[in-house]
């Protein structure tokens, strides 16, 4: 029987690592950055541009003067955001149709709701997220704990707005998930075997 697992995650919670390790434990496909690459390929947009608008709520930037009409003129930025989301939804649906897989982020739990995926949300307390981010920082990247906390807060806020805009649901709400995992002060590799047993 095909397994479709979606993973929502707070920034710094280790959700991406969890998804990768879970896919390896189950021997199934793993999709994350691959989705962005595929959108870029299909739309002729750069991966950097696609990444900059994926998981961010579309920006409304209507002109100040719109004449006497109650309808604003076309907004190319908003339309591009919507086009990228629609392409993303198509790609995620295609990936899920092909084989068992783990898909990280990008409203996959909502996009695939008719396929009844197993929906996981990964979270952690702020201290654990800061520690994990500092440990995984690229060489030469010297951020203070305060700067990392601001980055985590900002990214999670954008993810919440993005999720609410496209799904109409609250990001991280336990009612939207089948399993919520707290990774605070815990090594991801120690959690995965227990979760993998659910799909044995």
Which helices and strands, and how do they pair?
Blueprint: E1 4-9, H1 15-26, E2 29-31, H2 33-43, H3 47-53, H4 76-98, E3 101-104, H5 108-111, E4 118-123, H6 126-135, H7 145-167, E5 179-182, H8 188-196
Parallel strand pairs: 1-3, 1-4, 2-3, 4-5
Helix pairs in contact: 1-8, 2-3, 2-4, 6-7
Protein name: Cytidylate kinase-like family protein
InterPro entries: P-loop_NTPase
GO molecular function, one term: kinase activity
H-E order: EHEHHHEHEHHEH
End-to-end CA span: 11 Å
Helical residues, percent = 40-55%
The pLDDT mean sits at 86
Counting DSSP E segments of at least 2 residues, the number of strands comes to 5
Sheet with the most strands: spatial strand order: 2-3-1-4-5
Rg of Cα set: 18 Å
Category from helices, strands and their pairing: alpha/beta
Q: What summary fits the major beta sheet?
A: 5 strands, parallel
Q: Supply the number of helical segments.
A: 8
Low-confidence stretches: 60-71
The general outline is globular
β-sheet strand percentage: 5-15%
GO molecular function, one term: kinase activity
Protein name: Cytidylate kinase-like family protein
Keywords: Kinase, Transferase
Organism: Candidatus Aphodoplasma excrementigallinarum
